[in-house]
Amino acid sequence: MATSGPDAGAAYPPAVDVAEQQRLVQVIKDWSIANGLAVRPPPAAISATEAALASTLAMAAPVTLFPSPFARSCFEEAQAAQQAYNELYAKISQDEAFLGRIVAEVAGGDEFTTKLWAVHERVKKEGYTHKHSLGIFRSDYLVHQETAGDTATGKAEAHLQIKQVEFNTIAASFGGLSGQASRLHKFLAKTEYPLLKSNTPSDKYSLPDNTSSRDIAAGLQAAFEVYERSEPKTSGTPPRCVIFLTQDGERNVFDQRHIEYAVEAPVFRVPFSAILQQTSVDTSVPRRPLLYHHAATQTFEVAVVYMRAGYGPSDYPDESAWEARYQVERSAAIKCPTVLTQVAGTKKVQQVLATPSASADGAPSELSRFVTDADRQATLRRTFANIYPLDTDSAAGRQARAWAQDVAACRTFVLKPQREGGGNNYYKYKIPAHLQTVPAEHWASYILMELITPPPVANLILRNGQVEQGGVICELGIYGTCIWGSESGSASQRILRNETAGYLLRTKGDQSEEGGVAAGFGCMDSVNLV
Fold this sequence. Notes:
The chain is an alpha+beta fold and 530 residues long. The chain has helices spanning 18-35, 72-93, 96-106, 111-126, 175-191, 212-230, 253-260, 275-278, 319-329, 339-344, 347-354, 367-370, 374-381, 395-405, 430-435; strands spanning 38-39, 59-60, 63-64, 68-70, 132-149, 156-168, 240-246, 267-271, 279-281, 290-295, 298-307, 334-336, 387-389, 413-416, 426-427, 447-450, 457-463, 466-485, 494-509, 523-525, 527-529. The protein contains 15 helices and 21 strands. The strands form 5 sheets. Strands 3, 5, 6, 17, 18, 19 and 20 form a 7-stranded antiparallel sheet that branches. Strands 7, 8, 9, 10, 11 and 12 form a 6-stranded mixed sheet that branches. Strands 13-16-14-15 form a 4-stranded antiparallel sheet, with helices on both faces. Substrate binds at residues 256, 506.
């Protein structure tokens, strides 16, 4: 546990005058476009005369001018926990009975998760044919600062701990851009920061390497090779490929392209809305291979489906979208993720793992079910935030309901539904007002999490050509890749690959309650370890 705030030992960020800031901004803009730290501009920013060129336009992604100070001990603790988290969620994804209970608890107020589960049950009825699963995970954290008085000196001392915000099992984004943000700050530390009048030489920065795009691509490549080994070819077997399922009008395309270009196999992008038009399942073969129709005369067998869409209700506007998800799920392709793995990433699972049981030692009620090693259990427990159910059956749930309705008590909590993506949470005084709009019998589909209190950090953010300066909050994400499944002739499943895969740092103004870059709240950043 760290015992000091993220203070680099001097004023941070370094002071810059108007001319220095203008130069930094121009260098960052040019470097970002030259190196793919970029996004497509929003439609509102494209003039009528530029509309025909929309697919060729790019703009620098929002990014900080300096890497943000981050406690080294917290960064290392988060990295050390990732493989344990990979294993935990791989095992949860295999436990249908456990996930079925989770879905039953949230079903009344969460139609989306209920419909996902219906896809699973439909495929289960006819029989699953895929042998392996791929997880590209991201565990998100905030540094929590607890201030306690030192009885010897009478002074307050800050203790820093890393606490998990959420665990993402589908469409964990920014693995492509996060490495570029790290490269940008390394470049600036060598070339630009030493030129500032405040004179911050490059050796004053501790900037770890970040190979997230390469590592995530390696996970996809490994899954492709597992499929090649486990699914026999015949003389008529078409060539094999990886498909990325994407959203229509995707602005974050370059983040995905960095990963795509690092995979050493044919990769094709398929809009989620076009699954039924561009793919089919060959039901003449018992294992039901998924076929991608690249052209009228060219067909590929899909080895791996990487979902960068399908994580929220807006991707399923009608029943044909659910039929498309069913088509993918029933195929032999390795899915990233399967429906079961997606359900494993719901907030309710996170709450059930973290809520202490009534046992004397206070151990999380379900963690030992999946993780038997005591050291790994301890590693995970240290990162758990305090999370509570909103049911009426448990003492914890009844207490949480009281807090959520109390206008004073609710100010230390955030209310979360099962949704992925930014902008879905309710903070502090907004909690009672929102719950008044929800039938009480549906409250159990939410979780109540104690707010994490990060230490004060300052930085400058470049967004849409404008610089914002002030207090910021930094959210750390650690990526992991995991492949699990059954070998030929075996019914039991085992983990074939379990790796940590780089990191993401998203930073937002300290008055913002959400941190999603794609949702318009945060920006790209990298860590300066202190």
